[in-house]
Amino acid sequence: MKKSVKILTGILGFIILIPGLAKFREPFKTFIYKHLDYIGFPFPEVMQYVVKFGEVGVGLALLFLAFKEAGLTKKVRGRVFYISNIAIIVMMIVAIYTHLHPAVPAEILPLESKPPVMPIVYIILTVLNVFLYKKSTINYEK
Q: What stretches pass through the bilayer (predicted)?
């Protein structure tokens, strides 16, 4: 991976991992449950753990790619990269929906902000990361 992709992958891993870890502690532990409950997700008791472990897993996978990608085959590296980035986009689409849902009060959202600025920025960074990765893999194959 090119240096720019490694850096952006590491940043994305970090900004997904830290909130994922924070969701295991109060008040975020309660907030994530309330988000899921307010927007009508089925089984919010179980889904809160899917969200927490999903964010931690994706964050760790991206950090691993940023620092130890040389130890992986090209095929495995590509799969982990794309699956992790797609997972971020899916998570952020749900986050945008949560921010815009009328039943979710701003007090339980990140930065207590209703406009979904953070999720949109994360999606932009993720799309940029995939674009740069794709561009760098095409250049290496020529």
A: 46-67, 79-97, 117-133
Give the global pTM: 0.87
pLDDT profile of the chain (142 residues), mean per 10: 90 94 88 87 90 95 91 89 96 91 84 87 96 81 50
- How far, in Å, CA of 29 to CA of 2, rounded? 37
Please, are residues 129 and 9 in contact by the beta-carbon 8 Å criterion? yes
Question: For residue 30, what are the contacts with CB-CB under 8 A and spacing of at least 6?
Answer: none
Distances 125 to 31, 92, 99, 117 between C-alpha atoms, Å: 25, 11, 19, 12
CB 64 within 8 A of CB 79: no
